[in-house]
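User: Design a sequence. Structure:
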């Protein structure tokens, strides 16, 4: 149930209490109060990722087209301040910290058992108070270049990105989140300040906290620091091409130092054209894929008995605000044969739908995962942010999950990928 107030309400269910606040500065705050928990976790994120490098801002009339990888570069540099590395300060308090950048989100996190308010204050302060110098920015380019090259040597990542390069050849999601070795050389400290001022605006950010904490203290602390560091908000407009629906190439082959071949197979679709929230789209695909491709299903058993897949085989659905795609991948002795079998099998299950017993098992699996997640402060925070961004109810997720039926699931799945074009990326050992 919700206690409705202007920008302030409480949600209760499945033994949990979630405090929802929108602070005067514009920041959205979600707090899962977990009495008796020893650990506390906080995640401060912004709706800004690697695809957001073409935009207009109220700070300037000029349209901004910035180098690929700048969101990830900015995340790296946020930890460095005039008086030292923020991670060292947090570690001295017994607090672990980290950060991540995805295609459309950047998140900074802390986890600790003691001195939480002090650690939270440091988190909110360093994320909302940038400090860059040209010298240190240039130094970071070598570090990130090494990271980019490391991922280039990862066959699983190359296969994944290879499919995206085929599916989204006219869209920034086809470019590695970290950018390229060439693109990051173009990044300047002024570019970083511009992106921080534009996208690290409180109205574009969310703070999620989980643990035994006082919601009023959390909100008062965040409000005071942000109001000091960011006195006014900034408006912006993203400029992005709509992804083309036909892949540039249906199949790409690449040689790498691997023991055996690998196949990645994917298709893309528009998640905003289906008439339901992103959260419901994601739920439909999670249940569909699990109920037709998990171990124990006819489709999986057929592939396994034919020696086309092993335990490395996996599948996923990525549903984000501007794009969505399915990905099937695994080691296989004959990638072309597996590709054919997957394409034929997907056409069949899209027509027939999942077996009732397989769908029931998938629903119980995800419901169990949802319940287990309530006992994890980190999982709670990440789910709070994800549900907020995708228009879903965090505490209502389990109930909605169990209400899903095959007709509702297949209506969404067929509308999304019923006529989609697939792209494959094959990794072969050197010399093959």
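Assistant: Done.
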């Amino acid at each position: 149930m919700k206690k409705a107030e202007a920008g302030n309400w409480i949600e209760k269910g499945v033994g949990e209490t979630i405090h929802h606040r929108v602070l005067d500065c514009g920041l959205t705050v979600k707090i899962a109060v977990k009495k008796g928990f020893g650990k506390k976790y906080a995640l401060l994120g912004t709706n800004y990722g690697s695809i957001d490098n073409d935009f207009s801002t109220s700070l300037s009339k000029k349209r901004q087209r910035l180098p690929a990888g700048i969101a990830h570069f900015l995340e790296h540099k946020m930890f460095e301040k005039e008086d030292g590395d923020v991670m060292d300060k947090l570690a001295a308090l017994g607090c672990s910290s980290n950060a991540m950048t995805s295609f459309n989100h950047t998140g900074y996190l802390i986890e600790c058992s003691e001195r939480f308010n002090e650690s939270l204050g440091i988190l909110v302060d360093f994320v909302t108070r940038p400090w860059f110098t040209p010298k240190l920015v240039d130094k970071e380019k070598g570090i990130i270049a090494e990271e980019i090259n490391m991922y280039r040597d990862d066959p699983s990542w190359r296969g994944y990105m290879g499919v995206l390069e085929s599916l989204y050849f006219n869209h920034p999601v086809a470019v590695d989140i970290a950018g390229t070795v060439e693109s990051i050389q173009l990044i300047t400290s002024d570019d970083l300040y511009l992106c921080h001022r534009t996208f690290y605006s409180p109205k574009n950010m969310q703070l999620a906290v989980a643990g035994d904490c006082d919601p009023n203290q959390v909100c008062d602390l965040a409000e005071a620091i942000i109001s000091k560091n960011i006195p006014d908000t900034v408006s912006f407009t993203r400029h992005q091409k709509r992804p083309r629906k036909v892949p540039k190439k249906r199949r790409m082959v690449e040689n790498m130092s691997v023991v055996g071949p690998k196949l990645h197979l994917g298709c893309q679709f528009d998640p905003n054209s289906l008439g339901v929230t992103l959260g419901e789209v994601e739920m439909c695909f999670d249940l569909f894929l699990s109920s037709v491709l998990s171990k124990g299903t006819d489709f999986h058993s057929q592939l396994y008995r034919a020696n086309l897949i092993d335990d490395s085989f996996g599948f996923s659905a990525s549903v984000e605000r501007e794009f969505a795609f399915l990905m099937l991948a695994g080691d296989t002795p004959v990638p072309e044969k597996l590709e054919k079998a997957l394409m034929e099998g997907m056409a069949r299950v899209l027509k027939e739908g999942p077996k009732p017993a397989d769908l029931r098992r998938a629903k119980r699996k995800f419901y169990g995962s949802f319940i287990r997640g309530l006992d994890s402060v980190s999982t709670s925070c990440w789910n709070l942010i994800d549900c907020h961004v995708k228009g879903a109810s965090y505490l209502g997720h389990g109930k909605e999950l169990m209400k899903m039926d095959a007709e509702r699931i297949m209506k969404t799945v067929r509308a999304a990928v019923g006529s989609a074009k697939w792209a494959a990326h094959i990794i072969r050992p050197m010399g093959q």
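The longest strand covers residues 262-269. The chain has 14 helices and 17 strands.
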